[in-house]
Design brief:
The protein is of the alpha+beta class and 284 residues long. It has a single domain (65-282), classed as Fumarylacetoacetase-like, C-terminal domain (Fumarylacetoacetate hydrolase, domain 2), CATH 3.90.850. Helices cover 15% and strands 30% of the residues. Strands 1, 2, 3, 4, 5, 6, 10, 11, 14 and 17 form a ten-stranded mixed β-sheet that branches. Strand 2 and strand 3 (23-25) form a beta hairpin. The longest helix is centred in the last third of the chain and has 11 residues, at 220-230. The radius of gyration is 18 Å and the shape is globular. The two termini are 35 Å apart.
Length: 284
């Protein structure tokens, strides 16, 4: 099942994508797609609905992030061998955890805004995990049972804010619009094996990143189990799982985003994002 939120910012409505690729309105069934509706019972009820009985939404409108009000936006750093090497960092022995501000979340077609003082804004296509229920100290073999679904995340990063001086990854990754998510939240039954998904990212039509989740250092199940040993994961929590090689920081010379750039990115079975880069002063 592909769940989606559509409409203008702050007024999104819930929907789903039917077998023909049409967007159907779900607002007669649920108020929104948020933490409270990600349990197995609610997802099972939605999956049992015949989409042909739901209103069709005319195409062309804005698509928002597919989940609203997540309690946490976690992320894993350096989770692909080649990306760790291109960043000049050691391959970690255990998952590297950090957070992005939930206020960074934006839609899969919204502009990415470069904030004042930012000169090294970079891209990172990532598989995003959406937690389906409260999870604490879950073993690896049961970890996927705690996942509601998956979504594309672009972990937009300002490298100078992240790495220069005292650094601080959260600071470098949390500006408004630095977390495009979606277009869909795809439930686990439809995704199948999360460790067999191609992912890619283009800037201005040039392929920058290309990889497969099979080359992740720590799998989805290992990430969820590891994190749950150190904290309670809540329903709706979003976890970005790391990026394959090809980020701007790793190029020779480095290549960073500029106003006017166009990013397109996708993950097999999870849809695509298309994002225009603008200076923050250009926003309305």
């Amino acid at each position: 099942m592909k769940l989606v939120r559509y409409g203008e910012l702050g007024a999104e409505r819930p929907g789903l994508i039917d077998g023909a690729g049409d967007l159907r309105d779900l607002s007669g069934e649920i108020d929104d797609i948020g933490p409270a509706m990600l349990g197995a019972e609610t997802l099972g009820r939605l999956a049992a609905i015949d989409p042909s009985g739901l209103p069709v939404v005319e195409p062309g409108g804005r698509i928002g992030a597919p989940i609203t009000r997540p309690g946490n936006f976690h992320a894993i750093g350096l989770n692909y061998h080649d990306h760790a090497r291109e960043a000049g960092m050691e391959v970690p022995d255990e998952p590297v955890l950090f957070n992005k501000a939930t206020s960074a979340i934006s839609g899969p077609g919204d502009d990415v805004r470069i904030p004042p003082g930012a000169t090294k804004v970079d891209w990172e296509v990532e598989l995003g995990i959406v937690i389906g229920r409260e999870t604490y100290r879950v073993p690896v073999h049961r970890a996927l049972d705690c996942v509601a679904g998956f979504a594309i995340v672009n972990d937009v990063s300002e490298r100078d804010f992240q790495l220069a001086g005292t650094g601080q990854w959260t600071k470098g990754k949390s500006a408004p619009t630095f977390g495009p998510v979606g277009p869909w939240l795809v439930t686990t039954d439809e995704v199948g094996d999360p460790q067999a998904l191609d992912l890619w990212l283009d800037v201005n039509g040039v392929r920058m990143q290309s990889g497969n989740t099979a080359t992740m250092i720590f799998s989805v199940a290992e990430i969820v189990a590891y994190m749950s040993r150190h904290m309670v994961l809540l329903a709706g929590d979003l976890i970005a799982t790391g990026t394959p090689p090809g980020v701007g920081l790793g190029r020779t010379p480095p290549r960073y985003l500029r106003p006017g750039d166009d990013m397109r990115l996708g993950i097999e079975g999870l849809g695509e994002q298309r994002l225009r880069v603008v200076a923050e002063t250009e926003r309305g």
